[in-house]
Every structure is written in C-alpha cells, then in structure tokens.
C-alpha cells in the first residue's frame, strides 16, 4: 500500500530516465552493494526515531510530503524569481533522498516503536548515493540527492529545493507530533507509553485523523488513544 503511494507520485515524473530510476528502486528497495539485510520493512519505518515522524510509516509520510512541498516550491520560485528549475529532477530527488533510512532501524521491544540498529555502519545518505551510482542513475539525480543531504555543496537549484522541502517537512512534522504527544500525556495514567499510544493511533486511524481529532476535541483524541492502549495491553 505505501509503495503504491510513492509510485503514484513517481509516475508523475515526466523525464523517463528519472522516472525509471525512482520506480526501479521503489520496485526493489534494497542495497545491492552489501550483504546486510534490513530488519524492518520500508513501509514500517519511521523517518527518525524519537525525532520527526517517529511513528510507524513515518518515513513514507515524510517522503511524500517532501516531494509535494518541493513541487510547490518549484512553482513558486519559477513564478516569483523567474528561475528555470527542473521539476522532474526535484521530485525524483525528493522521493529518493531518505529511501534507505529503513536499513538503519530496528523495532524497540523495550519502549515500543523503533531505534537505531547496533550493527549498522552506513548512513542512509551515503547509501542512496552509492546505490544510485551502482544502478546507473543519471549523474544529475545523484548530484541532487547528494546536495539535499549536504554531502556536496549546493551547485543546483534542484538540490537546494529538495533540501528546503526536506527541512520544512521535518520541522512541521516535529511540531505536529510534539503537539499530539503533549495532548496524549494522560494515557500514561493507563500504563501506556505516550509514544506507543501515538504510534498505535497513527497505525489504526492514520496521521490525518489523529491531527483532526486533536484539533476538534482533545478529549476524543485521548479517549481513542486509551482504547487502543487497552487493546495492546489485554
């Protein structure tokens, strides 16, 4: 399901070489240059445990949001600054920038959620550059992904835009997540971790529903989370 969401965005990329590079990785999201295997699936992964989008599926939410924000930034910068920006390259870079983060994480049996793997040795930003090069992706796409993570100095507007979109969504996601966590503190009285409560709420109801509940009725938000906590502890 989550791969379908990413693929639907990727299929909107006009330039065939960029579209093919993204869809190839989404169709087979593995690192071919190492024998190391992921301990969780891409669709399970958070974007950053205990940081932004720490919940199950957070990586996909962050990736899609980054791509959509980046696309809008292209539109705005073209309109207001008159710059020539390759939207296809921007969207491709946004979809790929964090794609191998799931290799870095494992389930946390103690506190719930996820944590960094003890045995992992390769940061995801280097991993995606290496994998793109190994698969023969276009050089300009590799450059944009490198710039988005600060591995190379900004020399393209496309790399800068992906970087800005990534930062914007990470900051916004962290803010929304923090607001949800602060409203869910009461679930700890039920013996449920507030982090686990939010993770279960997002898994069962979806992030959008969780945010809407918070905005409409904090009592309903807490009540729903408590129900899910009880189901987990029974």
UniProtKB/TrEMBL annotation:
Residues 55-180 form the HD/PDEase domain. SUPFAM superfamilies: HD-domain/PDEase-like. Pfam families: HD (PF01966). InterPro entries: HD/PDEase_dom (IPR003607), HD_domain (IPR006674), HDIG_dom (IPR006675). This is HDIG domain-containing protein. It comes from Ignisphaera aggregans.
């Amino acid at each position: 399901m989550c791969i379908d969401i990413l693929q639907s965005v990727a299929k909107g990329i006009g330039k065939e070489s960029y579209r093919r590079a993204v869809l190839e990785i989404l169709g087979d999201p593995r690192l071919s240059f190492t024998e190391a295997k992921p301990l969780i699936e891409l669709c399970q992964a958070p974007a950053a445990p205990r940081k932004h989008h720490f919940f199950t599926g957070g990586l996909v939410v962050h990736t899609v949001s980054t791509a959509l924000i980046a696309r809008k930034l292209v539109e705005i910068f073209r309109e207001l600054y008159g710059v020539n920006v390759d939207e296809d390259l921007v969207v491709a870079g946004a979809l790929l920038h964090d794609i191998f983060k799931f290799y870095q994480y494992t389930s946390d049996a103690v506190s719930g959620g996820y944590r960094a793997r003890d045995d992992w040795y390769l940061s995801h930003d280097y991993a995606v550059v290496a994998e793109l090069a190994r698969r023969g992706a276009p050089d300009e796409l590799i450059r944009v992904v490198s710039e988005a993570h600060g591995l190379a100095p900004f020399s393209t507007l496309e790399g800068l835009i992906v970087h800005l979109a990534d930062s914007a969504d990470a900051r916004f996601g962290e803010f929304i997540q923090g607001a949800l966590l602060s409203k869910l503190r009461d679930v700890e009285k039920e013996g449920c971790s507030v982090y686990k409560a939010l993770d279960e709420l997002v898994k069962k109801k979806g992030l959008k529903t969780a945010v809407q509940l918070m905005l409409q009725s904090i009592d309903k938000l807490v009540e729903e989370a408590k129900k899910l906590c009880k189901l987990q502890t029974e």
